Amino acid sequence: MSFVKGLKCRECGKEYPKEPLHVCEYCFGPLEVNYNYEEIKKVVSRDVISKRPPNMWRYREFLPIDGDPAVGFDVGFTPFMRARNLEKALGVQELYIKNDAVNHPTLSFKDRVVAVAISKAIEFNFKVVACASTGNLANSVAANAAACGMESYIFIPYDLEQTKILGTLVYGTNLVAIKGNYDEVNRLCSEIAGKYGWAFVNINIRPYYAEGSKAFGYEIAEQMGWRLPKHIVVPMAGGSLITKIWKGFKEFHKLGLVDILGTKVYGAQATGCAPITTAVKEGTELIKPVRPKTIAKSLAIGNPADGFYSAKVIRESGGWGEDVSDDEIIDAMKLLAETEGIFTETAGGVTLGVTKKLIEQGRIPKDESIVVSITGNGLKTQEALVGKIGEPMTISARLAEFDELLKTQNKSYPVKRSA
Question: How confident is the model at residue 419 (pLDDT cuts 50, 70, 90)?
C-alpha cells in the first residue's frame, strides 16, 4: 500500500498525480513526492520498524512505490560505527561513520535511489531505463537493470575512472561515453529522454529516485537509538542527497520517531568543483556553474540540479559548507583507512577532509556527536592513489634479506626461541 498523495512543486505548491514528471509546468520548479503523513502515523512506530528485515524497505511507508520492490531487496541498513581511532586523531569525543561503501550490490549509496527508481519505472510500465552518471549511478543502474531483466542505457563523461567503466560494462549494459563533462552529458540525456520516452532515473523519474536517499538518514536515526546527531557532514554533487537526509530527519521528527530535531547539516565539496559551498560562504542564493577540475569525479557536477535547495538546507539547519583540495582528499582517504580500516572513494575523502577542516575551524564542536557520511568504495577510484601512498618493499624469498630489510628500517623484534 502506498501513502503517496502525488507530486508537488517545491516552488509554487501546485500538485500533480503520480506520473513520470519532474518539472512544474507553471513555474518550472522541481517536483517532489507528497505523502499522507497522517495515515503513515497510524501504522508506523519504532517497534514496527525494528522488527522488519535489515534493509531500506523497513521504511517502506516513506518510500514512493505502490507495490513490492522489483530490485534491490538487500539494499541498505549499512554499518554505522563508532570511530574511536578517528576520534583520537581528530581530537573529538563522539564521532560515527555511516558506511555506504559496502552497500549492496554496487558499493555506494546510489543503490538506494536506483532500487526505488527502477521499481517505480516498472510500475509506470517503462521498458528501458537510463541515466546520466559520474560513475556510481552507472554501476548501480547497470547492475539493477540486469537483475530485473530491463534494457539499460548509461551515459557518462568519457574520462571517468577505468574501474567505474569496467564496473558498468560487466553487467552488459549499453554504455555511451560522451566527449564532455557531466553537465554536457546531462543536457544530452534530457534531449534523449524527450525523444525516446525512456525512464531516465535522474531526469523524468527524479522525484521518486531521490526519495531513496532518505533511507540513509532513517538508518542513522535508528542506529543511534532513535535520536539524531548534533552534526552530520554530507558530500554534494548534484545536491540531492543532503536535501533528502534532512527531509528524512524532519519526517521522523514530525511522526514522533525521534524526539529532537537539532542536527546541523554540513555540505562537502572538492575545491575544484565547489559551486554550492561557494554560494554558502558568499551568503548568496545564486549557484554559479563551474567547470569541474578535481580527482573527486563522482562529485564533479558544475551545475548542480539541487544546488539551491542544498544551500537552503545548510542555512536552515545552522550548518556550513566547506571544500578541500585534491591533496587534502588523498590525506583524508589515507586517514580513514589507517585509523578505521575503511577504504573510501575520493568522495569520502572530500567528506572526511571537510569534517577535519570544520573541526579545526571551530564550526563543529569537539564535544558533540558527529556523523561522517561515507557514500562510495575506494576500490572504484584506485587511480587517484597511484604514486601517493608508497610502493611495496620487494625482496627475494630469503630470510636473510628480510632481516636486512628490518635493519634498514631500524626495526627490531624479539626472536622466538627454537623448540
Answer: low
